[in-house]
Automatic annotation (TrEMBL):
GO molecular function: 8-oxo-7,8-dihydrodeoxyguanosine triphosphate pyrophosphatase activity
Alphabetized Pfam families for the sequence: NUDIX
Keywords: Hydrolase, Magnesium, Manganese, Metal-binding
PANTHER family: MITOCHONDRIAL COENZYME A DIPHOSPHATASE NUDT8, NUDIX HYDROLASE
Designated name of the protein: CoA pyrophosphatase
The UniProt record lists the keyword Membrane: no
Matches recorded under InterPro entries: CoAse, Nudix_hydrolase, NUDIX_hydrolase-like_dom_sf, NUDIX_hydrolase_CS, NUDIX_hydrolase_dom
Length: 191
């Protein structure tokens, strides 16, 4: 009688899970910043696609910007719970269709958010339904993003610290800000 496969075997054999497990995650401690989480969803394909959204032009903040599904943590919520909830709310991605692989390096935004990116696998052809916050879905492959002409800039923060900024032009879209920073870390493109 053959033994049933352990469902964790699929996660452990996933190269992204191994990659996450081999890294030392950079955590931030920013008590005055608002906690948030985003879902960095990669499709299950030889050249995975990453799930990005174009925010609606009707929103009070970040209009038209490209982002990962995500948002603020509710009281008592973990980053993983928040990322799954927000992805479900924004694009209809059912948490049952998501395999969480781990958390990437924390990032912050100039407007006061401390964001934990949650790396996950999603179906190659996810069934999605956009809410009013999302104008459009983007699904670039990681290969396309690696081939994009990465633009690097440096900005000096009010305290004098110099931080790198990145931009990924892709099919007429400008992926920048926190989203580009997370992509840059994910793609392992160095400083």
């Amino acid at each position: 009688m053959s033994e049933a496969p352990d469902p964790l075997d699929a996660v452990l054999e996933d190269p992204w899970a191994v990659w996450v497990g081999e890294r030392t995650r950079q955590r931030l401690h920013l008590p005055d910043f608002r906690r948030a989480a985003v879902l960095v969803g990669l499709t299950r394909e030889p050249d995975p696609r990453v799930l990005l959204t174009v925010r609606s032009a009707d929103l009070p903040t970040h209009r038209g910007q490209i982002s990962f599904p995500g948002g603020s943590l509710d009281p008592g919520e973990t980053p993983v719970q928040a990322a799954l909830r927000e992805a479900d709310e924004e694009v209809g991605l059912s948490p049952t269709d998501v395999t969480v692989l781990g958390e990437l390096d924390d990032v912050f935004t100039p407007v006061g958010f401390h964001v934990t990116p949650v790396l996950a696998r999603i179906p190659a052809q996810p069934r999605l339904t956009l809410n009013a916050e999302v104008a459009e879905l983007l699904l670039p492959t990681l290969g396309e993003l690696r081939a994009a002409p990465l633009v690097r800039e440096t900005r000096t923060l009010p305290g004098g610290e110099r931080v790198p900024l990145y931009r990924y032009p892709w099919h007429g879209h400008d992926i920048w800000g926190m989203t580009a920073r997370v992509l840059h870390d994910l793609l392992g493109e160095g400083p």
